[in-house]
Amino acid sequence: MNKVSLVGRVAVDPKVNKTSNGKSYMFLRLAVEGYFDKKTKQMTTDFIPVTVWGREADKCRNLLKGSLISIEGRVSAGSFADSNGEKKFSLDIIAESISFLSKPKSKGA
User: Do 75 and 91 touch, CB atoms closer than 8 A?
Assistant: First the structure.
């Protein structure tokens, strides 16, 4: 089963774009608390790439950096050749549903 659930804050103000055939999409980075690092005695933060398509992207039009959201989706694995022809691998989250949990704590938070 390929299922992902994440709760975190939007790391950068996202922007909804359109494909050449008019389908909405958005890329965002979700800041999610990782684990407690015993050496530094601090929580780590993971910045997870998320892609949102269609109606879900349209409903995220007013998302701002710092907004607390919940994402349900799946992992998408891919590969590509970089500019040097070297094969690279990627893992992304494809959001299938997004819930808005709070607005940013303050503008630019």
Answer: yes
- Residues of the chain with pLDDT > 90, as a percent, come to 72
CATH number for the region 4-77 comes to: 2.40.50.140
pLDDT in tens, 25-74: 999 999 999 888 888 888 899 999 999 999 999 999 889 999 999 999 99
| Structural domain spans, the chain | 4-77
Q: How far is CA 24 from CA 41, 58, 75, 94, in A?
A: 42, 7, 20, 14
- Please list, in sequence order, all residues whose beta carbon lies within 8 angstroms of the beta carbon of residue 43, skipping any fewer than 6 positions away: 33, 34, 35, 36, 37
Would you list the DSSP string of 32-89? Answer: EEEEEETTTTEEEEEEEEEEEEHHHHHHTTT--TT-EEEEEEEEEEEEEE-TTS-EEE
